[in-house]
Amino acid sequence: MKLNFIDMLKSIVRYSLALGLLLQVASCSGQSRVNEQKKELVMIDLVKRTIEQAHYDPKEFNDEFSKEAFDEYFKQLDVFKRFFTQDDIKSLRKYETLLDDELKAYDFNFFNATNEMYVNNIARANKMCFEILEKPFDFNVKESYELDPDKRSYPKNEKELYEAWRLSLKYEVITRLASLVEAQEKKKFDPEKKEGNPKTLAELEAEAREKVTKRYKDWFHELDKLERADRLADYVNSLMAVLDPHSNFFPPKEKEDFDINFSGQLQGIGATLTQRDGYITVANIVPGSPSWKQGELAVDDKIIKVAQGDEEAVDVVDMRLDKAVRLVRGKKGTKVRLTIRKVDGTEKEISIVRDLVIIEETYAKSAILTDSLTGRKTGYIYLPSFYANFDDPNGRSSSEDMKKEVIKLKEQGVSGIVLDLRGNGGGSLQDAIEIAGLFINTGPVVQVKARYGKPQVYGDPAPGVVYDGPLAIMINPMSASASEILAAAMQDHHRAVIVGSTSFGKGTVQRFFNLDDMARGYDDVKPLGALKVTIQKFYRINGGATQLKGVSPDITMPDMYAHLDVGERDLDHPMPWTEIDKAPFQPLPYQTLFGQLNAASQKRQSADTIFQLEEENALRLKAQRDRTLMPLDMATFREEKEKAETTAKRYSKIDEVVMPLLVAPLNDDLNAADTGRREIVKRWVKNLRTDNYLYETTRILSDWNTFGVARKE
Predict the structure, then answer these.
(1) Which of 418, 411, 400 is nearest to 461 (CA)?
(2) CATH of the domain at 324
(3) DSSP state of 449
(4) Burial of 50 (0-12, 13-18, 19+ CB in 10 A)
(5) Are 534 and 592 in contact (CB under 8 A)?
(6) What distance lies between CA 86 and its chain's CA centroid?
(7) I want to staple 105 with a disulfide (CB 3.0 to 4.6 A). Which of 15, 292, 532, 708 is the partner?
(8) Is the bond preceding residue 527 a cis peptide, omega within 30 degrees?
(9) Is-contact 487 479, C-beta < 8 A?
(10) How far, in Å, CA of 540 to CA of 507, rounded?
(11) What pLDDT does residue 533 have?
(12) Do 223 and 315 share a domain, yes or no?
């Protein structure tokens, strides 16, 4: 799909599109504003067309759509209800049913009016904030603050907005003040020394208020850097959000970041940057990266200027972080010159040749787990996402990496394999299908239905099995999308026992549409970004769907998220659950076995004090999350804080209990010689040894072997 000039011209004629508007803008704001307006017109046309032509279930652009998008836009702009009042929103209600008409006519009246108001409201909030913070708070007054914005209404007017800001700031100050008081109470003072004596409550309050003041100065400073394009991105996302929770607009920088997270690699210098006090500051150096090899850039260095090759340097002090990052990143083999200010205040210029930066934490890792009580060896693979590099056919993919790890574990003679998909939010559909093929000889994996036509069945692309021994897949409520495809397929085939807690419930497939590729002939307005659009729904091979319901485990374990609202069903505008006909397949004869495994595991869990504490902790977290009305008098605040901390201590040791597991990592990359990667290995191994869920899963696979029904190679 591309933007057709003739169609665009027809749209201009039909809707009196902004030819006159462009001339009017040109006369008052100059060429730059004309280019900006042209870019907005092209982008909104592409958004409209993509929704109409590509979305799985596009909604009609009507008054109902308009009302939903109207409400969504204020959620995008003001989720914590700090800027808009009910009076403000009431004054904009005249647009409530017109957003669909404006979208069709390429008008921006609502956006323009809201944008102007938003800028003014930020200035209003800025003034209120620092006016409130100039005076000490009285923490003897009995009042409270509601943390959950969904439980608060928008303030009716400016008076109520001021009061809302006062309560919010008072909560932030009392939080810091309570910590300062506690720290001082634990500190020992020498009464003979004048320096270091206890501070008064008033002095501590001033210190806490000063910290909050600095935080908001930085925050408002960053808000002031936001541009019209940033708020237009929020507006477009409010239109997309009405369709479903996973259709989004990605401005160019956000799309670039998404690609990095998805592929686990980027071209650049390998330094994580943040912004502190107006300076672009180094927060982390990636081990093995160009920055790490060059050796002169260090954590906490401030980047003052950036130059490309031998070109003139650009001052990046007080520059937006995303723009500075764009200057620092660049193609492999190119040189970037950085003027840096060290912690001691000295400045120097360093040169770094950009290269491919590998983010190891995003890739599959494997280990041998040996039960020190029985001597049984279990293979373990952690897959953080179903990553792939669509821009490089030779780039790393989760399916190829998984195959390598499975083969290595087989060569070690493991008695079973645990595949850990906890927290895996998904990724490449094709990789999920190919990974399933490692464990089944042949057969269907998933059914995919597009907007038109019958469902398509996707099966194992390579007949033959890489591993046919005992297999367990671990899931939790944060396992989503491709994780659910793989877990559901293995469950339906009875190929793996699924353990943990019910997964997220995302049963839809998205595709990226690069707006630059579609807007041919409009190079002067690029880059435009990309749209991520839901184009398909996927179904289990048994005909059911993971949408909303998720994958229910064969063996349930308590989970800290189990009682929290974290699934697809808790998002706004989720697509409905539906089902289709099942695909033909023959499950393995393991149903009775899995029932035996469940019975044995539940018996162990019921006698396991750690699992009992995990369930208690999950219920505690639910109660804590529901308790959102916070006291603002010091006595009650400290009493509740101390009570919560005392209760938390009961559960704080859960993750410190070492299981009888010996862990030997196998991943060659993690066994590299550099110290950074060795630290990654140490942390990873330590976490595995204190993972009670993992230990119980290895015992489930031990039962699989003990019951004598595991297939032999």
Answers:
(1) 400
(2) 2.30.42.10
(3) E
(4) buried
(5) no
(6) 31
(7) 15
(8) yes
(9) yes
(10) 9
(11) 97
(12) no
Span 654-672, pLDDT tens digits: 878 889 999 988 765 455 5
Which ranges of the chain have pLDDT less than 70? Answer: 1-31, 190-196, 667-680, 708-713
pLDDT in tens, 269-292: 988 888 887 789 998 888 778 898
SS (H, E, C) 19-41: HHHHHHHHHHHCHHHHHHHHHHH
The tokens of 239 are what?
């239109």
pLDDT value, residue 19: 37
pLDDT at 676: 57
Contact 165, 129 (CB under 8 A): yes
Count of domains observed in the chain: 3
| Number of alpha carbons in the 13 Å side-chain half-sphere of residue 275 | 17
298 and 434 in a single domain? The answer is no
CATH number for position 586: 3.90.226.10
3-state SS, residue 247 = coil
pLDDT of residue 188: 75
Domain co-membership, 675 together with 545: yes
Task: Please check whether residue 711 lies inside any domain of the structure.
Answer: no
User: Which class for 521: exposed (0-12), middle (13-18), buried (19 or more C-beta within 10 A)?
Assistant: exposed
Q: Where are the beta strands (DSSP E) in 541-631?
A: 555-556, 629-631
Please check whether residue 531 lies inside any domain of the structure. no
Contact indicator for 282, 292 with CB cutoff of 8 Å? no
**Co-location of 166 and 102 in the same domain:** yes
Question: Domain boundary residue among 358, 386, 404?
Answer: 358
Residue 685's closest CA among 658, 648, 712, 649? Answer: 658
Query: How many other C-beta atoms can be found within 10 angstroms of the C-beta atom of residue 207?
Result: 14
**402 & 488 share domain:** yes
The predicted pLDDT at position 191 comes to 65
Full-model pTM: 0.88
Give a yes or no: residue 123 inside a domain: yes
Q: What gap in Å lies between CA 73 and CA 93, rounded to an integer?
A: 13
Q: What pLDDT shows up at residue 667?
A: 61
Which residue type sits at 115?
Answer: N
Structure-token pair, residue 231: 């708020």
- Angstrom distance (rounded) from CA 158 to CA 84: 9
Place of tokens 């409009």: 522
- The four Cα atoms 127, 129, 132, 135 give a dihedral, to 10 degrees, of -100
**DSSP-assigned beta bridge partners for residue 272:** 284
Instruction: Please state the length of the chain.
Output: 713
Domain assignment of residue 353, given as a range:
265-358
Query: Do 69 and 190 lie in a common domain?
Result: yes
Do 87 and 221 fall into the same domain? yes
Beta pairing class for 555-556 and 497-500: parallel
User: What HEC string does 527-547 produce?
Assistant: CCCEEEEEEEEEECCCCCCCC
Torsion of CA 586, 589, 594, 595, to 10 degrees: 110
DSSP string, 212-227: HHHHHHHHHHHHHH--
Specify whether the CB–CB gap between 695 and 611 falls below 8 A: no
**Is 375 found in the same domain as 322?**
no
Q: For residue 383, which amino acid is it?
A: L
CA 93 from centroid of its chain's CA atoms: 33
Short-list 128, 122, 112, 75, CA closest to 223: 122
